[in-house]
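User: structure tokens for this one?
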Amino acid sequence: METVKRKFVIWGALAWASVLESIRRKDLYVALILAGLMIAAASTIGTFGVEGLELFLKDVALNVVGLLSTVLAVLFASRQITEEVQRRTVYPLLARPISRGDLIFGKWLGSFALSAAALVGFAVLAYGLLAVYRIPLGAIFAQFVLLRLFSLGVVCALTLCLSLVMTSSATVTVALLLTLGSPVFSGAAKLLYPATDSAGRRGWEAFNYLVPHFELFDLSKRTSYGWQPIGAPVVGALFAYAALFSALFLVLGALRFRRQAL
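Assistant:
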């Protein structure tokens, strides 16, 4: 029990240090201002009294929330370990009773907390700006935010893992391609699968199972059209899916970091 408590203290301290460092950089404030400007710019159409644009405004607001929260998650996670190594602050950290696995998990926890705070901020901002024009988002909006939160855990773990084998710029590029381009890759796999031979199909099947499908967490269209919330079993399955991939990437990252020369 004492060991478990010590682990939680270590993870919490590492996560809090990451949060403080990002707050000092003011990335979150800039992103919130940018999100507000983007949603407000689209919302100005409502001042002209044009009817039937509720769907457009909701779609813009939800896409801004999803896009900026994902981009921030990638940026937060991509520099957690690399900057510690570059500034050589990783040495005093590891000189304490902190394992490399603890460092990986603590840094993931910090980047996830920051990403979650950004997501909630964007969601509140979008909800408030749409409320000005009396555009309801419905009960499914809460599930939209919740599933986005699940996906951000995977995004942070994936990016953190990539940062241990790639440069910072390559990490950001590949992580954004895998996260934002997930629907494109999924659609391409569905189109190419029937046209390939048996070996090619096995390759596409492996790709389908090994690469996380971030489009599964996207309820933006359902929210825009005012659909009813999805069932609790589906939400639970998506949580398990996100937890599985997050754990997988964190384990791979920890194994890589343990073998990495500093």
